[in-house]
Structures are given as structure tokens and as C-alpha cells.
Design goal:
By secondary structure, the chain is α/β, with parallel strands linked by helices. It is elongated and about 60 Å long. α4 (90-97) links the parallel β4 (81-85) and β5. The strands form four sheets. It has a five-stranded parallel sheet with strand order 2-1-3-4-5, with helices on both faces. Helix content is 30%, strand content 28%. The N and C termini lie far apart (68 Å). The relative contact order is 0.09.
């Protein structure tokens, strides 16, 4: 059996050396090492690891870079993530916890705690492959991409059969994710795309389209109302708002309470 491939994202040389010593002694293989966000993204794109050890703060100018990395990794990969930090501030921990890490360790690294965290995370990752229905994907907000292709036009072309059909953005009711596919619902038809919601959100953005959960984007112009149980009514369809999206959705609209 091949040893597990681990990624280390850390800006402190001494911490890297300590981690390398522990990991090699325990039989793991360090497939990638990175000291910046960009370097980590490039290495993972080329060689996805079996587990990632992420320092939350990667030096001046890269505060909380580890959290951003975790958000991006969660959109494309399923390997476990363990956070490392020397500053366990409550606000930082809350932001880190929102990415659903498999463990959160403070520096200086305790050998026993690190060994247990890695073993436990890898075992859970193995269990997820065997019983995926028992481990639903976390509901995460889409990270802000550095480069987006803005959908400024009021229409796009979507493949239907052997041709591409013109689809007006105003006609889109909602977009629903189904694993690696998207269902674009309109009043007249439904279009099936071979992509996921994260990729669509990063490539296209339009003022009318609002992501409200891990699996839904809605057209704000077709909203009929909001229910108190955190659902949006779109052309008669009740669509739940994901927990991590509720605050952002509330900021987008004005809500007035009557006296009766």
C-alpha cells in the first residue's frame, strides 16, 4: 500500500522541519510544500494530496490565507484539512470552523495530537468514500475568485441536443446543482449542464443571479416572497437558504415589518 501523500502549507522554516521529521517518521510522504497561497494552489492543481496541513496565517500580507485556501480546496477536492495556528483567536477560529476542517491544532505542535489528528482525518476520508451518503458535503460560500468572467450580456448560449440555444438571463428562474451537473430552470424549459455550481459561480456573475445555498442560484426578479423558515419562493417553488448564505441574502434586500 502506497504511503499517504501530505501537503504542508507553512511559512515558518522551523515548523516545516518539525512537521517533516514527524511525518516521515510515521511513514507519510510529503508530496507538496508551499509557503504562499498561490504556490499551494498551483501544487494542488498538479498533485492533489491525501491530506493538507494548513497554517492559517502565512506571514505579512497573507493573514487568514489558510482559510481562503481551505474554502477553495473544499470546492474542488475532498481531501481532509487540518489547520495549524499560533494565534487561536475566537474570531479566527469561527472563520476557520466555517470551512469544516477535520482538526484545528495550535502551535507549538504537540506530537501526539498531530499524530491522532492525521490518523483520524484519513480514516474519516476513507469512510466517506465507502459511505458518501453518511457524510453530506458542507454548505460553503463560494470563495471570491481573483479573475471572473462577468456575464454582462443579457443572454447566453446553452447546449440543447446538438445545438446551442439562446437563453435570456431574465428567463432563468433558478439553477440547481446535482453533483457534477446543473439544472437551469426557466418557465419554458430545463437545461442540463455538465459542470458544478462552484465553477459556474466563478466563471459568470450577473446582478440578477444570487447564490443562496450550496446547491441553488436564484433569479432575484422572480422572487415572490420569503418564508420565516429561511426559504425563498420563486415562481411557486420553495427553495431553502443555506445557513452560511443567510446573512448575505438579508443584506441584499430590505425587509419591513408591519404593525399587524
Amino acid at each position: 500500500m502506497n504511503p499517504s501523500q501530505l501537503l504542508i502549507v507553512e511559512d515558518q522554516v522551523m515548523t516545516i522541519r518539525i512537521l517533516e521529521a514527524y511525518l516521515t517518521e510515521w511513514g507519510y510522504e510529503i508530496s507538496c510544500k508551499a509557503r504562499t497561497l498561490e504556490e499551494a494552489l498551483n501544487q494542488v492543481a498538479a498533485h492533489p494530496p491525501d491530506l493538507a496541513l494548513l497554517d492559517i496565517n502565512l506571514g505579512k500580507g497573507q493573514e487568514r490565507a489558510g482559510i481562503e485556501l481551505a474554502q477553495r480546496f473544499r470546492q474542488h477536492h475532498h481531501f481532509p484539512i487540518i489547520f495549524l495556528t499560533g494565534q487561536p483567536e475566537m474570531q479566527v477560529m469561527r472563520e476557520a470552523q466555517a470551512t469544516r476542517p477535520d482538526a484545528y491544532l495550535t502551535k507549538p505542535i504537540n506530537e501526539a495530537s498531530l499524530a491522532f489528528a492525521i490518523d483520524d482525518a484519513l480514516q474519516k476520508a476513507s469512510d466517506r468514500l465507502i459511505h458518501p451518503q453518511a457524510f453530506p458535503e458542507p454548505d460553503l460560500p463560494t470563495p471570491v475568485a481573483e479573475h471572473r468572467s462577468w456575464l454582462l450580456e443579457e443572454f447566453l448560449f446553452v447546449k440543447k441536443g446538438n445545438s446551442y440555444r439562446k437563453l435570456a438571463v431574465k428567463d432563468i428562474l433558478w439553477i440547481r446543482a446535482d453533483r457534477q451537473y446543473l439544472n437551469i430552470h426557466t418557465l419554458q424549459d430545463t437545461y442540463l449542464l455538465s459542470t458544478n455550481l462552484a465553477n459556474f459561480s466563478r466563471q459568470f456573475e450577473h446582478s440578477s443571479l444570487l447564490r443562496i445555498s450550496r446547491s441553488h442560484i436564484i433569479n432575484i426578479h422572480h422572487i415572490q416572497g420569503f418564508e420565516e423558515n429561511h426559504t425563498i419562493l420563486v415562481e411557486g417553488q420553495a427553495i431553502p437558504i443555506g445557513k452560511t448564505y443567510r446573512e448575505e441574502v438579508q443584506k441584499r434586500f430590505r425587509f419591513l415589518k408591519t404593525t399587524r
